[in-house]
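call fold(seq) -> tokens
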Amino acid sequence: MRGLWLALAAGVFALPVQGEPGSMLRVDFSNPALTPSKWTLVIHADGSAHFHSDAGAIAPKDVQTIEPLSVDKDVRLSEDYTDRVFQLVRKHHELLDDSCESHMKVAFQGWKKLSYAGPEGNGSCEFNYSKDKDIQGLGESFVAVASTILEGARLELLLQHDPLGLDKEMQYLQDATGDGRVQQLCAIRGILEKLEEDPAVMERVRKRARTLLAQDSK
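ret:
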């Protein structure tokens, strides 16, 4: 499972372009134990995407750290990543007309609902843990992309309200990039470039931003 997740991040598959104009994939995630508790990621075949998160029932006063409770923004994902996502979705299109939940007794990871619309038709399925390894891997990858976008929003808040907190957060981002917990740094390239160029932030933060940008460009 982890192999597919990291493969999507690293781009090790040599697959043809599968996304066709008009194809769209919507990912809805919910887990009341997390902050934010709900988010939606809509991905188009050209790599354009939109992310929206909802804080849910947790009140801002109950959050002890700087957290982006609500995010609503357009992002762009890499061409390679988008092509691989749509290739796998098209490959398993028939599964999206059925249940892809395993019903196994596994830890709750959050509900992921995948909804696809394209030339082949429409389909959707919802799962905590999928019985299909490709669908499960896609779910894990989308969570990692959402984590990246939320991390970018967190960096924006820290830059405005707690610049000293950037050092620890950038260390986390670097570590999480290495093990696959975050993917598609291109989605937060703007804030990374801002940090790299800002003489007011710690040099260590600027250096880490520079390193992450270099990784994203490979």
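Residues 133-161 form the longest helix (29 residues).
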